[in-house]
Structures are given as structure tokens and as C-alpha cells.
Write a structure and sequence with these properties.
With about 500 residues, the protein is α/β, with parallel strands linked by helices. Bound molecules: pyridoxal-5'-phosphate.
Length: about 500
């Protein structure tokens, strides 16, 4: 104990670049001086160390930690101070480098004399978190070890060998190389422990709900969600014995809907199509206090503008068909959560079968490289267009959380880093269809989130399946238009909107 504490102290004191929480003590075939053989792990972990390894690889804990260590090693942030190089060579690694000599010497001086022969000490370089635009490019992926190519190869096999490995690779098990490569990138972008990539947003949403809800459970679901999600809970829950309360967006209203058998709270923010904002911190706090899982569809915000895990939400969903894909040429969905929930989701998913093929996984991975740069530009354009529309005589109202006049503006400012690229507006005297027909550049199209600006009237598209009565209650009128702003030049977009508004 004293040994570890001393090491940690030393490093904290004299090495700004080291993060003591990421300090690893690896013991190759021996014990750390001062520890009994049976108990060191717990105490080492309590001190904030990442792991202890033993060379007997098949001991449960030892084996797990070897895997951690290999991952750490692959991240390139590990200094190896002694003969662990041989150890990794035996595991099949090449090109293993020592850390800088002065650091190695320092670590040896402090630690090595206190360990039994064969002990090895490793220290991580302090990791400065990457910015999201850098993560978009460099996080996740699967290195091309065969040729050294810098992109993830597309692994086309639907059949993988199984004799020399205990992992059974199969697309419907959600564990093939392209699936994992892109899942890792998305986990990094949202700050998730684990993630599952699906063949559509609805595959992700339905699989998650069917995983977390059983007959006899109750779900609190915000009423202003994507029309397809709304239809799913209304069409299937009662048949499955799951009771449902549809609620408004205010945290108190959500809490009031909770019953003793409530297991999930399902929300969207900003909402589709009215761009209302839910207070995510408040909802997460309710979930934690009442022991209920909180789930958000984060499609509209994207990981660039909103990170629900940081606000305490448990499960994050995306229709990757939208911004993550970003080019209107790909369907996919994403579910992100902690390891335990994700493994439950993966198990149901393997039964239901909504997995994504290798080519689409690769396309998604490629698209994600430009996610931040696309969404930043889209968000800037949307902000300017919302101001233009707000000041136009023919526009009755604009819904965009970035406008100070928006009722959710203060909450959005508090929980989003940008206000997103979706907005909706209502025309004073012009029917939605007539306006859309006058547009020359902006296309009337289903879906959203692409690099091109698109427009639709939610009453006959995304919310067509929602009853007229509910649409009326929510405020989705026949004059409402939803704009998904792209990356075109702002002046061209405004010009197009202006000429359509002024058409006589
Ligand atoms: C907010 C939101 N969530 C989920 C979905 C469903 O996604 P998909 O069409 O990929 O199944 C959509 C689709 O429009 C959506 O807008």
C-alpha cells in the first residue's frame, strides 16, 4: 500500500504530464512488496490504479487486465519501464518502445527497488482529451495491419473461422470488425462506454425499448417525439402488456407521470418538429432519484451540439440516417450506454436481427470524419436563417432554440454547445405546399441532417402517423414547415427562401 501511495505521490508532485489516476502497476509473476498475495487488486484499484497483471494469463482477473493493458498499449500512451517488452513480444506484439529514458530511470528509482524481482511498473502519459473534431477523424476505426493503409478496410465476409478463437464473429451478433470500428468512434464522440450500431434508427429505438421493458412495466414517454417512435409505442406496448403514459416536456410533468412500475423515461430534445427543449439534467436527476432509466433520442442535436451522458442520461439513441450519415445516402441507427445495458441491448438485437452491413458501417465511419465540421457549418447557417425568418412579415413564428424568443432558449444554452441545424416555422397566409413548390434550391424531401438543405411539412410526413387530435394538441399545423439546414452558402439559402416567400 505504502509503495503504491509513494509512487503516486511522487508522480503527482514531479511530473505534470502524468495522471496518477492512470497509473498502472503491472506485476509479472510476483507480488508487490507489502501486499499479501490474495488482496492486492482491491487496494491498488482503490488508490486509483488502472490495473495489476499477473503472468498467469488464465486467471480470471489477470486475463481481463491483460486485455486492458493491451488496449492501453495500443493507444500509444504507455511507457514501459522494464522487461515487460519481452512479455508483449510473447503476446505477439512488435515495435514495442520504452518511454523516455529519464522517465524510465525516475520510475525505476522510485519503484523498482520496492518490488520483487520481475515486477514491472508502467505509467500512462496524461491524456489530454481530444476535441470532438479531432475525435471525428481519429477515434475508433480498425487499423489495416495487412498493408498499413490508413483507413479501416471493408471486411466483406459473412462467415468467419472459429477454431482458433473463442469469439464467434457474425454480423447479426453485432461484433464484426466494421461494426466494432464505427461503434468505437461513436462511443468516443458521445462519451459512452459501449455502443451497438443498427440498420436504422427505428431498429435501435425498438430494440432498446424491447430490451428494457417487460410485460407489467410502465414507460413514461414524451409525447412530442419522432412520429415513428410515437407510433411504435402506441401500436405495440399494450399488446405486449407494457403500460404507457405520454407526457409533456417539463421535468415536473414527467415526474408526475411516474408509477411504481415505471422502468424508463423516454425523451427527445430538441424535439421533432417544434424544437422544444427538455431539461436533460432535471430529467436525469429524476431518473437517478427514482431508480428509472432515462433514454434520449439525440438525433437532432448530434454529439457535436449535445452530450447527454455528461448530463446524466443513461441511454443515447440516434437515427444515424440523419446527421451521422450526413449525405442522405445511408440508413443506420445507434444505441449507446454503459457496458451492462449495452450488452443486454446487444443480446436482444441478436434475436431481432437489425444489424448493419460492413459497407454501410464503413460509409458511416467515413461520414463521421466530417461530422463536426458539417454540423458546425449547418448550425451557423440555421442560426442566421432563423433570424431572417423571425424578422420576415410573412412568417407567423419561428421555432429555433438559438433564438432568445424561444421558450427553451435558457435551458438549451445551458445544456447544448450549439443550437443545432433544425428549425421550423409557420407561414402567415401561405399553405406549406405552395411555399415548398416555389423553392428552387431547397428540396422538399423526407428525412433530414444531410449536407443539402431540405424542407418538409411534418403534418403529412414525419407526423403523418400521429392522429390529427394529437397533432393539434402538439401544435403541428398544416402551415408548419420543418427546415433541415445544410452546408450551402448562407446567401444562396436566404435568397431561395426570400424569393419563395415573396412569390405572388
Ligand atoms: C428524431 C428521429 N429519431 C428517429 C428516427 C428514425 O430513424 P430511421 O428513419 O433511421 O429509422 C427519425 C427519422 O426521421 C428521427 O427524425
Amino acid at each position: 500500500m505504502a509503495f503504491i501511495a509513494e509512487c503516486i505521490d511522487r508522480f503527482r508532485l514531479d511530473n505534470e504530464d502524468l495522471d496518477y489516476r492512470q497509473f498502472i502497476v503491472a506485476v509479472d509473476g510476483g507480488e508487490i512488496a507489502g501486499f499479501g498475495r490474495t488482496r492486492p487488486h482491491k487496494e491498488v484499484y482503490e488508490l486509483g490504479c488502472v490495473g495489476v497483471i499477473e503472468s498467469r494469463r488464465n486467471q480470471g482477473l489477470g486475463k481481463m487486465i491483460v486485455e486492458d493493458l493491451i488496449n492501453a498499449f495500443l493507444s500509444g500512451n504507455v511507457y514501459i519501464t522494464t522487461d515487460l517488452i519481452g512479455y508483449f513480444e510473447r503476446l505477439g506484439f512488435r515495435e514495442i518502445k520504452n518511454g523516455p529514458e529519464d522517465l524510465v530511470e525516475k520510475i525505476k528509482r522510485v519503484c523498482i527497488s520496492k518490488c520483487r524481482a520481475g515486477a514491472v511498473v508502467m505509467v500512462y502519459r496524461k491524456e489530454k482529451p481530444m476535441h470532438i473534431d479531432t475525435k471525428c477523424i481519429h477515434a475508433g476505426g480498425c487499423p489495416d495491419t495487412h498493408t498499413g493503409g490508413i483507413n479501416t478496410p471493408i471486411f466483406t465476409s459473412s462467415a468467419y473461422g472459429y477454431l482458433d478463437t473463442d469469439v464467434r464473429l457474425y454480423q447479426r451478433y453485432f461484433n464484426t470488425p466494421n461494426q466494432e470500428a464505427v461503434a468505437k468512434k461513436l462511443c468516443e464522440l458521445e462519451g459512452a462506454e459501449d455502443g451497438v450500431i443498427f440498420s436504422s434508427g427505428m431498429a435501435a429505438i425498438s430494440t432498446v425499448l424491447l430490451t428494457l421493458l417487460n410485460s407489467g412495466y410502465h414507460a413514461v414517454v414524451q409525447d412530442e417525439i419522432y412520429g415513428g417512435s410515437h407510433a411504435f409505442v402506441e401500436d405495440h406496448f399494450s399488446r405486449l402488456g407494457i403500460s404507457l403514459t405520454l407526457t409533456g416536456k417539463e421535468a415536473q410533468v414527467i415526474e408526475d407521470a411516474i408509477k411504481p412500475n415505471t422502468r424508463i423515461i423516454y425523451i427527445e430534445s430538441p424535439t421533432n418538429p417544434l424544437l422544444n427543449v427538455v431539461d436533460l439534467r432535471a430529467v436525469a436527476e429524476i431518473g437517478r432519484r427514482r431508480g428509472i432509466l432515462t433514454i434520449i433520442d439525440n438525433t437532432f442535436a448530434t454529439p457535436v451540439n449535445q452530450n447527454p451522458f455528461k448530463l446524466g442520461i443513461d441511454v443515447v439513441l440516434h437515427s444515424g440516417t440523419k446527421y451521422l450519415g450526413g449525405h442522405s445516402d445511408l440508413y443506420c441507427g445507434v444505441a449507446l450506454a454503459n457496458k451492462d445495458i449495452a450488452s443486454r441491448i446487444r443480446k436482444t438485437a441478436a434475436n431481432l436481427g437489425g444489424s448493419l452491413n460492413a459497407l454501410s458501417c464503413y460509409l458511416l465511419e467515413r461520414s463521421l470524419k466530417t461530422l463536426a465540421i458539417r454540423v458546425e457549418r449547418q448550425t451557423q447557417n440555421a442560426f442566421e436563417i432563423s433570424k431572417f425568418l423571425e424578422n420576415h412579415a410573412k412568417v407567423a413564428g419561428v421555432n429555433y432554440p438559438g433564438l432568445a424568443s424561444h421558450p427553451g432558449h435558457a435551458i438549451a444554452r445551458n445544456q447544448m454547445s450549439g443550437y443545432g441545424a433544425m428549425l421550423s416555422f409557420e407561414l402567415k397566409d401561405m399553405p406549406a405546399l405552395a411555399f415548398m413548390k416555389q423553392l428552387k434550391l431547397i428540396k422538399a424531401a423526407l428525412s433530414l441532417g444531410g449536407v443539402e438543405t431540405t424542407i418538409c411539412d411534418p403534418a403529412t410526413t414525419s407526423h403523418q402517423k400521429v392522429s390529427e387530435e394529437v397533432r393539434k394538441r402538439l401544435g403541428i399545423s398544416g402551415n408548419l414547415l420543418r427546415l433541415s439546414v445544410g452546408i450551402e452558402n448562407l446567401d444562396d439559402l436566404i435568397e431561395d427562401i426570400q424569393q419563395a416567400l415573396e412569390y405572388k
